[in-house]
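hey
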């Protein structure tokens, strides 16, 4: 099993993922984020509803939604970088959101453009120049109602040896 397989296994195994979150991203662990899917096409992250993610108005706090949307784009980015075998820095350089409906139940944030993200990372590796990729994550509730759309700008740059 190579490093990228181990990385994916950690992200998709509930116990290993929770342990990693508590050590690296405790706020995401406390909120209860889960990676439901991580593959070549992208990722799906679940965000539970409830007191830990709720705002004073009874819906899911926008920052909790932003955290889930960012993770749905960040997990594949880190996995693709690991697969490249090259040290690449990744940094969120921008974030835009549009909220379309109140989120009042568990939400799923889905990023589905893994091929384009991988191409951006490959370009950064090949050219040595920074590449900015805008990843779109759509949040929906269990009934399919769209609650939010996020655009997360990722900057990828090959690290100097």
């Amino acid at each position: 099993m190579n490093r990228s397989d181990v990385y994916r296994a950690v992200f998709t195994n509930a116990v290993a993922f929770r342990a990693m979150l508590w050590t690296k991203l405790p706020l995401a662990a406390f909120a209860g984020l889960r990676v439901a899917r991580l593959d070549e096409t992208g990722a799906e992250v679940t965000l539970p509803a409830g007191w830990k993610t709720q705002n004073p108005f009874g819906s899911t706090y926008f920052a909790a939604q932003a955290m889930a949307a960012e993770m749905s784009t960040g997990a594949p980015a880190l996995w693709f970088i690991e697969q490249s075998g090259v040290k690449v820095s990744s940094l969120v350089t921008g974030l835009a959101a549009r909220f379309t409906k109140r989120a009042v139940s568990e939400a799923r944030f889905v990023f589905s453009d893994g091929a384009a993200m991988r191409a951006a990372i490959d370009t950064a590796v090949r050219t040595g120049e920074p590449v900015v990729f805008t990843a779109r994550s759509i949040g929906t509730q269990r009934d399919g109602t769209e609650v939010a759309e996020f655009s997360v700008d990722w900057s990828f740059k090959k690290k100097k040896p």
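The helical segments are 3-12, 14-24, 26-31, 62-84, 114-127. The CA atoms of residues 20 and 68 lie 16 Å apart.
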